Amino acid sequence: MVLSTMYRDHESMIKFLAIVAFGLIIASLIIIATTPPAGGYEISVYAAYPGYFWLFLIVSAAIGVYILVTQAFKENSSRLWLAGLAVIVLVNTIGLSSVTISSTINPMGWLTWG
Predict the structure, then answer these.
(1) Residue predicted with more confidence, 110 or 71
(2) CA angle, 14 as apex, 88 and 98 as ends, to 5°?
(3) Where are the domains of the chain?
């Protein structure tokens, strides 16, 4: 009885963490969409976005890794590892293509100045 309650609580915690991670990813996409275009040449993409944008991506990636690791070492693993994998893939895609996404939304972005 205790083990089934612990399993259910852990599974609901993993689901909650996945929702938080996806919420942070959505917030990151909103930040990309609302960031004003570059006024001139910018040396670093890190300076183009606010610090909390990068914090959101790092926290989301950490949650995704936590979900993957905990699901990998469980005896009776569920399909929740797919949520962790999706979070990591989305974070990597956003991080690597944030320059292109920003330039597509704001035409005066990186691609026209760089």
Answers:
(1) 71
(2) 25
(3) 21-113
